[in-house]
Amino acid sequence: MKLYSVVVILSMLHLPSGDTQEDFWPVHTACDSDKIQVIYRSCDPIQDVGFSLSSCTDIRTQPYVKASFLLRQSIDELYISVVVFHNGLNVFHTDEPICLPNFPRFTFCGNRRGEMVTIQSSLPGLKFPLKGSYDIHVHGINQNGFQIGCVNATATFQ
Amino acid sequence: MSGFFICQECGTGTVSAHCLYRTRGKTIFRFCNSSLQIVNISNTSPYTVLTRRSTMERVLYICVGIVVYFMLCIETIPWMKKQCIKTADGSDCSGLALQLVPDEIPDSIKTLDFSFNYLPTLYNSTFQRLRSLVSLDLTRCSINFMYEDVFEHQLDLESLILVANPLNFISDRAFAGPLALKHLSLAGSTVRSLTDVPTAHLEFLETLDLRGSDIHNLDGLENVLLQQMKRLFLGMNSIEKIKTADVEKLQGTSGLEISFKGNDLVDVEPNAFQNLDMGSLDFSGCFNKMDISVLLKGLEGVKTNKLYLGIYEDSAKNYITQTALQSFCNISVSDVDFQLQHFRDLSNTGFRCFAHVQKLDFTRAHLSAFPLSLSNLSMLSHLVLDDNSFHSVCDVNAANFPKVTYLSVSRNGKYLHFKENCLEPLSYLEELQLSHSSLMTGDFCCNKQLTGLRELKSLNLSYNFLMNWEPLPFNATPKLKHLDLTQTKYVLNSSSPFSNLEKLQTLNLSFTDFKLLENADILKGLTKLRVLNLKGNTIQGGVLAKTKNFDYIPLLESLVLSSCGIKAISGNVFKDFAYLNNVDLSENQLVKLRLADFYSLNQIQLNFAGNKITVVDVKIVEDLGTRSTIDLSSNPLACNCTTYPFIMWVKENFSKMKHIERTFCNATNEKVLDVDLQCVFSNRALGIVLGLAIAVTIIISLLYFVKKIQARYRSYSVL
């Protein structure tokens, strides 16, 4: 009866195992210094994104940011949503149209699927010193409501 | 039994929970997480099996295991197929890591989306059997080599998309054959020169997209200026100089649209575009290294319908001087775009040369006022002043452009005071856009503010502050056809504020605290209304009941009641809407799907997305006509053998299902379209297995019986 039991038990064990697993993209480090750490992870089911800050120590002056992602659909329209949590509290939320049919704000507006969007720019420096940990959730959708990108980041200021 | 039992480890992800796993026509029984070895019984003769009791026992146990397994599987174990999806006239095979066109794709398809796959080489044989193709998308397929006559067999191919492929080699005969290609996209495909595009066989080409291809100059422009060419995209390349000798090759073309968007121009020769007759010229974002006046000098003498001279937020700041604008005296253009530009000393003389311009776009052009008295904008019909910082609507000085039919002052950067009579000179105005402008309408709205706009047909006041409405707030604009009040709240001073708007066809009252059931006469007078949007207005009590309001709008075709907190719908609410063809009830709390309340299901688009519908009776959806669709995405749909008929209906009628890619089974989070419940097949398989198990048991019993008899005989023989 040993073998019989093994077959039955294993058959039953197998059942719930399949759908509880989810694929997660790896956690990336965009910046790591003694003052600031920025880590991020793509929350898009299809693809990862690239993001880096040129110099962590300069973040209070004018950090140079580089971000890159692949388009799975065109972006004749692009809307992004940014939510910032500080110690679990929602401290900032904005929904911003980035590309509108009559107002393409950036050169990448109108790019087609398959093309890469690469953003290289200096960010305005932080006006006041930040302390603690900030969780940032950014996601963008296009004219069809299709998710173009999704990122969860954590910035920790010492 | 032919074949074998195979036991292998579960893969991660979705295929693990499957009863059956089919591959290339064979059926194999798959056990996951099992340590059993492969038991191949196909080479073992039945006689040998029967004579080995221990083997028999094993087989018996395995059979019992299968029985138990199937019993557990029957209800809820769908498995996901990764395969091409059938579309209206073709197939979508994108993102499947395919290396060849799958055999199951029918020869007769017209469109094939093969993007995000892997096809490093394109041969004559790659698409040979797909002879009816009209559109082929090969975006990001890692194509390195394109050999000769690739599309020789595709006589009808009109659109070919080769975006983002590292095309290291394109044969000069790549597009040879009787091909009649109209649209070719090579964006981001590392075509380094216009001479590298093998255009010899593309005489019917209308659109050529070479954006982001690392092109440095216009050498070989004549190579791509084909007879039928209408649009040429050269944006996001590295073109620095535009020489008269290059542009001269455009002589003889008419109505051509060329985009140089995002090239960092350094020099444009004066009068380079002289005597050209263009449809559109896009130089947006080209001024990082060069002053716009250089380009305008180069454009002197050109005739073009559209001219894009704006910049982007990721471009360098640029200033346009009055002197530079004088070049427009020698440019014949009807539509100019200056988005995001800065103007120095914008005054009357600056627009001296805009007498023939019909459309002007100053979106975010850092304006706080328009010059006071311009006499030269008499031809202007469209004026866009969005994203600027006007203090009052009066600051646009409407008297400057009396013939304007379209005016937009949306997304104003500060509070925009909508004062009396500011727009009175605009007696031809047909469309007025004032959304997202923090509109301050004073004590009462809106007759004094809209005075003089007798011809106004479309008014957008959405996303603004609370307005105190007069009893008939739109009495000054009786010809209004479209009114958008999204997110703009109001104080009512009469029970029927729209009663004079007999011509109104579209009314958007979403998120306005509109009370459909309480204010029973609010829609009175809207006898021609065809589209009504009431999204985000909570229906009190959660039950949508019949209201007098619906009797006032008998011609309604489209009704949006999404996010209204509707839990149930009373009978016959929609029964009187004979023309209703679009109903959005998404993002409510409906548990049950009822379609009997509609006048007709022959041609209707129904949206029930984001509700709480779990079980759909197939009899309800079967009544949907061939031109009707239903959206059931984001509902907690049950996918088991109880809902099997509905799932089968979805598979057979997927064209009637909107957002099928977001229509998931609640328990397994798999697309309903991909679910393979195998309810019928599983039961048959169970029958076979049970039958086998019984047969084996009987054989073993017989064997046992025979052995016992043999034992008895042996004892007799000893005697």
Total strands of chain B: the figure is: 41
CATH topology of chain A: Immunoglobulin-like
Major sheet attributes of chain A? 7 strands, antiparallel
Please tell me the CATH architecture of the domain at 84-238 in chain B by its name. Alpha-Beta Horseshoe
Overall 3D geometry of chain B? Answer: flat
Word description of this protein:
The complex is a heterodimer of chains A (158) and B (719). Chain A has a single domain, classed as Immunoglobulin-like. The model of chain A is unreliable at 6-22 (pLDDT under 50). Chain A is mainly beta. Chain A is built from one helix and ten strands; from the N terminus they run αββββββββββ. In chain A, strands 1-2-10-9-5-6-7 form a seven-stranded antiparallel beta sheet, with no helix packed on it. Chain A is globular and about 40 Å long. In chain A, a hairpin with a 3-residue loop joins strand 1 and strand 2 (36-42). In chain B, helix 2 packs antiparallel against helix 10 (679-718). Chain B contains ten helices and 41 strands. Residues 1-52 and 67-81 of chain B have low confidence and may be disordered. Chain B has a domain at 84-238: Ribonuclease Inhibitor (Leucine-rich repeat, LRR (right-handed beta-alpha superhelix), Alpha-Beta Horseshoe), CATH 3.80.10.10. Chain B has a 25-stranded mixed beta sheet, with no helix packed on it. The two termini of chain B are 43 Å apart. Classes of the chains: A mainly beta (158), B alpha/beta (719). Chain A binds chain B through residues 3-4, 6-8, 10-15, 17-19, 21, 23, 46, 70, 72, 102-109, 112-116, 119, 121, and chain B through 10, 12-17, 31-36, 57-58, 61-62, 64-65, 68-69, 72-73, 77, 95, 115-116, 139-140, 161, 163-164, 185, 187-188, 212, 236, 261-262, 285, 312-315, 339-340, 361, 363-364, 384, 386-387, 668-669.
SSE order and pairing:
The complex is a heterodimer of chains A (158) and B (719).
Chain A: H1 2-14, E1 28-32, E2 36-42, E3 50-53, E4 64-70, E5 78-86, E6 89-100, E7 103-104, E8 116-122, E9 132-142, E10 147-157
Antiparallel strand pairs in A: 1-2, 2-10, 3-4, 4-8, 5-6, 5-9, 6-7, 9-10
Chain B: E1 5-7, E2 20-23, E3 26-31, H1 46-51, H2 53-73, E4 85-86, E5 90-92, E6 111-113, E7 121-122, E8 135-137, E9 145-146, E10 159-161, E11 169-170, E12 183-185, E13 207-209, H3 221-224, E14 231-233, E15 241-242, H4 244-247, E16 254-259, E17 267-268, E18 277-282, H5 292-299, E19 303-308, E20 319-320, H6 322-325, E21 332-337, E22 342-343, E23 359-361, E24 382-384, E25 406-408, E26 416-417, E27 431-433, E28 439-440, E29 458-460, E30 467-468, E31 482-484, E32 490-491, E33 506-508, E34 531-533, E35 543-544, H7 548-551, E36 558-560, E37 568-569, E38 582-584, E39 605-607, H8 618-621, E40 629-631, H9 644-652, E41 657-658, H10 679-718
Parallel strand pairs in B: 1-3, 5-6, 6-8, 7-9, 8-10, 9-11, 10-12, 12-13, 13-14, 14-16, 15-17, 16-18, 18-19, 19-21, 20-22, 21-23, 23-24, 24-25, 25-27, 26-28, 27-29, 29-31, 30-32, 31-33, 33-34, 34-36, 35-37, 36-38, 38-39, 39-40, 40-41
Antiparallel strand pairs in B: 2-3, 4-5
